[in-house]
Design goal:
5% helix, 2 helices, four-stranded antiparallel beta sheet, 348 residues, globular, mainly beta, single chain
Length: 348
Amino acid sequence: MMHPYRLLILLAWAAFGGLSTTQAQPARPALRQAPAPLFRDPIYDGAADPVLIWNREEQAWWMLYTARRANQDGPGVSYCFGTDIGIASSADEGQTWTYRGSLDLEFERGRNTFWAPDVVYHNGTYHLFVAYLPGVRSEWGGVAHIVQYTSPNLWDWTYKGPLHLSSDNVIDATLMQMPDQQWHIWYKDQGNGSITMTATSPDLEHWQVADGPAIGGGSHEGPKAFRFQGWYWMLTDEWKGMRVYRSKDAKTWEKQGLILDGPSDRPEDTPSGAHGDVVVLGDRAYVFYFTHPGRKTHFEGERNADNVYPYTKRRSSIQVAPLTLENGTLVSDRSRPFDFWLSDPTRP
């Protein structure tokens, strides 16, 4: 007969799984699902062209974006002009976003237009590159420049002036520092067929324009350059989704397929994804973009007798989706649930 003390030990061991033929597996954490939409501008309801940066002072993520005035009736496309750069912030790893206002960027008289920001942090200073057009128009047109500002805190900006690039009509900057410490800028050159051109700088002040286009071919906009999984990547907005390009040296680009080219089944995530940003955090990458949820195609919508587009066709929302590498190219399945969290990029 087994000693009673030994029997008690065996019973206790069994109670804690010691006699089980299978080891207990740790519970898988629940997916941290991204809100859909991720953000809608509560003032003008026309958030577009988002870019994200970690605010070191607030220890929070900031989203800067073109604040189209979508809920204000006006002739033609006037709601896309006279726009500020809006601010939304998140202190909970991207799960909720709070509207914070807009950047004070005016440097000359009148009501002027700011589009499509990009911002980088270098040697203790934030550098903002943004498209600028004087005045407000009712139809597409005007001459745009990419202008530069610097700030110690993302709130207070000092105007540095326009960049002298490949033409006098350029927008949509994206910047990246290369391993040799040189900065590269890519941008849409509207003066040369709306293709992507590039320039380099050792200090973010003096720029040397490269010979020939970085991405030629048909018209496109909103280039976004980044490094992920051992490759350099470029996304461009073709107004029917984003075209993917791949490169080993960020100079010669291999054209690949489209992402975000069709609607998903998430709220507000139609008809396709337009001009946005990519955040890479280790082995994770997310693409942030805007949608026109009231349209069937990117350019769909007719003006009424007063030359005004309906509000449902004007408004736009910000969304986020995962980027993954499959068979040598980037894909994005935003209909399937994915784990989403924006960790502090300054921590290892």
